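can u pls check wat happens w/ nicotinamide-adenine-dinucleotide
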Amino acid sequence: MTLKRRDFIRTTGLAMGYSLLPYSNLFANTNQKQLGVCLVGLGNYSTSILAPALQLTKHCKLTGIVTGSPWKIPKWQRRYDIPDKNVYSYDTIDRIANNPDIDVIYIVVPTGLHATYAIEAANTGKHVWCEKPMAKTEAECKAIIEACKKNKVKLSIGYRMQHEPNTRTIIDWATTKPFGAIKTLRAEIGYNVGNPARSWRLNSKLGGGTMYDLGVYALNAARYTTGEEPITVSAKQMTTRPKIFTETDETTHFTLEFPSGAIAHGKTSVGKSMHELYVDCEKGWYTLAPFSMYGGVQGKASNGKLLNIPIKNQQAQQMDDDALAIIQNKPVMVPGEEGMKDIKIVEAIYKSAKLNKTITL
Ligand code: NAD
């Protein structure tokens, strides 16, 4: 089985353009159990990123799929060696409870559906990984956390940046403060999407909206960079394409005020390209630009220090960290409570923009 899987990985890995050399000792410790992961939703992120990344992990393997699109099944089964008994539809998720090949159910559907399927997943007794943003509302986040507690399963939110080494350096600096107290920071993430496809991302009910989809990276960065929770939030939303963005935001600007006095200015847009985290402190500055791209995160500080630790694959790192937390029964790096803190603020950002006033949290 091990040999077959290694051959399979070599083939698919090369086909996907990954260099497999750094992973040559992938299965060195055959006694180490690899957790079986079942992906729920076979859209872009599962297909192009998570499934290939699972072939690079040490502690997980892709063993199951949940899909509402039957035509996708044969290709996934062939490509990833998934037996019929590990293929489910959205209506049969409860049956995963009896499948010993599956240890973790990973929710990768539109944000507005995260709560429904994450709760169903928890009720199977399997551990739950849920993509960012955690859900549409704080109440939904609470319900997911409760379901996981009730079923005694672990819950991790897919904030891949918190597993990334240069980001970890910045997170440590929130405590060690090598440049003194933070005065202000800018966190900006955007893509110039010329012709946004009609998708759930433009549908408010399904959890669409740029603040939810991209803005959470800037918001999460403001929180992990300061290590604080904001006390006030004010926001503005605008669009240059009102015929397309009829119910969701194209661009959101927000300002957060933290207890220390630090101020964060966040921007997110699908009308403009921007990818920078810049932190201005009492005795210097540091920046990551880009701070959230799959392809790499890099930056520098005012003392000349470069933030350029390489990482082989962000998602593989994230899933291995989350799998190890399960295997070793340790706290996960990004628990549900962390996802919920962002969603509470996201809701306040939308409220502030709508009412045109500062919201106290
Ligand atoms: P996508 O539109 O490409 O895929 C969504 C999948 O959900 C599709 O397979 C679709 O068939 C399925 N689905 C099930 N019920 C649906 C319904 N009622 N309406 C529409 N689709 C339905 O989206 P995606 O880009 O793969 O995003 C999925 C999740 O992954 C989102 O939560 C998103 O925020 C997250 N994501 C995270 C990252 C990251 O870097 N962590 C990157 C991209 C996406």
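The chain has a mean pLDDT of 92.
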